[in-house]
Fold these 4 entries.
Entry 1:
Amino acid sequence: MLKIACSDNALFESTNFTFSGLKGQTKVGREGLHYFSKKATIVLTSPNQQFIDKVVIGLFQESHILLGNLMLQADAVEIEEAPIFQESMKYLCISPIVPFHQVEGLNNKLFVNPLSDEFSDMLYDSTMYRMEKSGVYTPEQISSFFRFQVIPDQQYLERINRMDKKFARIYSVIKDGQIMEARGYTLPFEVLAAPEVQEFIYHNGFGELADHGFGMLDIPNFNPIKTPYEVSDSSTQE
């Protein structure tokens, strides 16, 4: 089953999207990750419905999809209802957040304390740059989004440290044909920002490398209504 979350407002560039890892019943073995469930799910989010339509059409045009040694076949698509965005939103990470990459003078693998102002500032700069680049928001709107703060769940971080587990890891990414590494963070947190900013990071991913599957967010204790996804008539006629 392919589950998709999207909004139906303004159209964005196709780079404004993110996606989850493949979800299913798994077990780590010597040869890698083994799937034991008959169905696997991937979540894709973008504000551009035409882009999602093309992805869905492309998936169902393939008789089988080969991922490593895993053979998949597109089965069904659902759309999830979006939440009501407010100035204070709590999030969970479906995929790791990369606060920066290829910043001059900084190592992509550098650890930045999530409780520091630097961590929040990096995500603010990334978000404002991506919102400006989308062409949807005016300079006046971008300037009005100055209220922004990321507040990680400190109790979660303390518990993870006590258990000697990691919430920040180095990930390999293929970008522009080159293999690079970046540090990603997986943790619950709260964002204080304008509702428009909350909507943007929810539908486009939070932080850098979103179009490589990073920065996908979920909302705790939110059970969205799911309905069958229907491709628009304009996409089927192309």
Note: The CA atoms of residues 156 and 174 lie 31 Å apart.
Entry 2:
Amino acid sequence: MSKEVVLCVSNAYQKKYYLNENFNGLPQTIRDELKIMCVLYTEDVGGILELVFDEDGNLDFRTSCKENDFFYDEIGSVLKIKQYRNERRELLESIETYYRIVFLGEGLEEE
């Protein structure tokens, strides 16, 4: 059974953004960047964007939309995620590292 953890969600339908309170320990600048990135995504593409950690600590982008949402840009979604993975690589990698250390306990072994 896999254990996934939601980092944040942006919802174009409800015009809401959610950051998992377990990640309040992230620096404010990183939390702000996440919010900007996710909200801009849903403003541009529509639908719902979730950033979710898999059981190995990899950060995945998950998208969905309501049935018959003709305004949701499926091609734009793929392109925008690819753009974020390239342009925000350092940010995303640092968040994965934070998750692996703080939540999975990696890198804390005694030498």
Note: The chain is about 40% helix and 20% strand.
Entry 3:
Amino acid sequence: MKVSKYLSRHLRHQPERIGLVLDPQGWVAVDELLRAMDRHGMPVSRAELEHVVATNDKRRFAVDGDRIRASQGHTVDVDLGLPPATPPAHLHHGTVAPCLGAIRAEGLRPMNRHHVHLSPDRETASRVGARRGRPVVLTVEAGAMHDDGHVFHVSANGVWLTDAVPPRYLRFPG
């Protein structure tokens, strides 16, 4: 878990902190990443890295040959090159009760990320919301959004991405 969090921090948010430069699509050479991790007190073998990537329950990382990147969730400027995709009728978003007032007023915004992250099922959204407290799962009328011209993408690990979700497309529990 420790290596996974380290990778997330440096492949999504702060590559410069360990001297990495991501390419425009967020990729970096695996060997370069391993050298940077070693220089900054997180020595990991290639086999250990491959194990973390393969066993990460959220499949947060993608490997393509000798390159690695985070699948989504970047705060640094990258273009993942994901094609537009047609979403299912409903997607879900996990949050916590203190955020509901702002969400009712403004909808879902990407905040410091490039996109709003949506889950294909309520269970995944609940796990996402639970990271910050007791989860509240919102239903997103993704099919209607798409019909109205909103663009969706789906990352390699099944997370749906869109620029924002206006309040009119949200369904709140209860």
Note: Residues 108 and 165 are 5 Å apart (CA to CA).
Entry 4:
Amino acid sequence: MAIKSKELAGMLGVSTATMSLVLNHKPGISDELRSSLLARIQEMGYGYMIKEEPQELQEGSPAPMKNIAYLVMSDYQDEGDEAAFFPPVIEGAEREARHLGYHFSIIHMYDEKGSRLRDSIRREEYAGMLVYADVMSQELKKELDAMDIPYVMLDCYDPFVKASSVTVNSQQGIYTAVRYLQEKGHREIGYVATGTARSSLLERRRYFHYAIEDLGLQLNREHDIVTNCRGAKAQEYLELLWKGGVKPPTALLVENDVLAIPVYRALKSAGYRVPEDVSVIGFDGRSICSIMEPTLTTMRIPRRLLGRSLIMLLHNKIDMKARSMEDIPVRLEINAELVEMESVCPVTWK
């Protein structure tokens, strides 16, 4: 049901004047408040109320009609619920691209090899590329470099491969989550991973081990769980684990919010309550967190900001190339924000 901007303002706890400035992209409020309100409006399903952002070109912006390709070199869209993470990233990237005078195209190449890139994408057609791949390798970098098109990787990083990227700050996000659980009294903290060979997810697990050690906690090997599957199969795996004699820790940090669903179900099937027996924290900040029972505490990623940051970094690289400046690889990290809901409760040790 459609609502009025006044009603939306009331739901978000702001004045009708502030809401008008946000919906119409008018000056008068801070960028931080504007970004926060725009993100919340989208998450609530009222994005249709936001007017199209003016396509004003700033001084130094590229001429209109230049194209940016969002190149997908991953099977994520075949994973169903995994694909839900990316639309806000794409939306943020597309808005910023239009603002800077670019056209934005999505190109799926997940069934093709990197060696076919030069045959599929012509240098004269694109000013730059955003590239999403599971893992950044020297082989992929070689193929991308050979195209002579500026590019930025999305949430994909390898310290030994010199390629610019915008990623989630996994160290900050995971460390914040573990420390939060520790402050709630938890000393037995576990981790649940899918085992997906995606660089960003492998990084999250690695930093979980770092946080546990740095905060003076001990990790039981039985609580460091890799399901090697998702959905119903992950639930079945966890049920067998917890019904088979392995007692879960008092708290679990889950690789992403989607995996928290089979974790919830498996805990319930094994006779454990969330959060009374086992507290659970997710990662990503997806909309499903607010409809889970109980609602899921999570580390929220500002995905639209992630998308806009990709374009801003790429725009800078395009400008540097046009002026024959040296291209220095840059890694820009976006912090995650702890969103407290109902899936964590304190523990009192006797």
Note: The radius of gyration is 22 Å.
